[in-house]
């Protein structure tokens, strides 16, 4: 879409600054939301099996690798969700009566553009509240969006989901909470329940929730998606070690580790681990922490739950959200679910 403003901005420079005026940070809690996470990192390395929190996937390099993974032929999730949004965005926005949009884990907000296009077609103002721990990506995405959508006002919350939900300004109109990309599947069960409880508390009766979720299917589709031949999925996970090195003055040696991903159809979850290829010692100097890793030892890194539609709806129902409609992409079994808070 062409970047044009209907507020009288004449030349290119004033045009750009007018767009920039439509971006503000409501919250950038600390410039670094992981600034105090060191003790959690140590705790997770002291349990058996060892683990690394998936929040370490998303530094600047990790986000870039994830974006590239999303564009590989094997990674069906983004394409399937984008297709569902393309087909149903108009219905969703109109059914919710042109709501303010709050997005959890907005990232580059590439697919959310489909919703903004509906506002643009109707020349309707849209207030957008993206919440993302990766403040750099959030800021870049916000500035790109306002250039493309003259009716868009972006109120960034550069922080965690829970803190972002708590910091939302008072509601002035109906809101649509969007949680896309099957990000709900990347959380532990308890985290999902905590998040839904916060969502329920942060939303008002009558607000909507748009949830994108990958569904249980033949393991071969899933295994391919997380083992793409270009290697972006593996590199995005292994980048967690770079992230730890940079942040905590660590000495993980990349060649000493390997990516492992496998779908467990019984648990309906994909499990991503990092394997230590040799007996080795790793130090995170700024945390004053050293650990031994055995050859073949596996570090838990990421999980991706795949849902059955009815199970997911029951989970949401227990959390106080009633199903309004659901759309399933049949080839890859990916679902878009619209709920309403009771
Ligand atoms: C899998 S990406 C999805 C991005 C986008 N919604 C999509 O569908 O392509 C997850 C995004 O959530 C953000 N994120 C992950 N955990 C978070 C947390 N606890 N709080 C806030 N943002 C988080 C990451 O920075 C990343 O941008």
CATH class label of the largest domain: Alpha Beta
- Contiguous low-pLDDT stretches (5 residues minimum) are 1-14
Widest beta sheet: strand line-up:
1-4-3-2-5-6-13-12
CATH topology of the largest domain: Rossmann fold
Total domains, how many? 2
| Cα shape | globular
Alpha-beta content class: alpha/beta
Series of H and E elements: HEHHHEHEHEHEHEHHEEEEEHEE
What does this structure look like?
- The protein is globular.
- The protein folds into 2 domains: 189 residues, Rossmann fold, CATH 3.40.50.150; 118 residues, no CATH class.
- 42% of the residues are buried.
- It is built from 11 helices and 13 strands.
- It has 342 residues and is of the alpha/beta class.
- 37% of the residues lie in helices and 25% in strands.
- The strands form 3 sheets. It has an 8-stranded mixed β-sheet, with helices on both faces.
- The N terminus is likely disordered.
- S-adenosylmethionine binds next to loops.
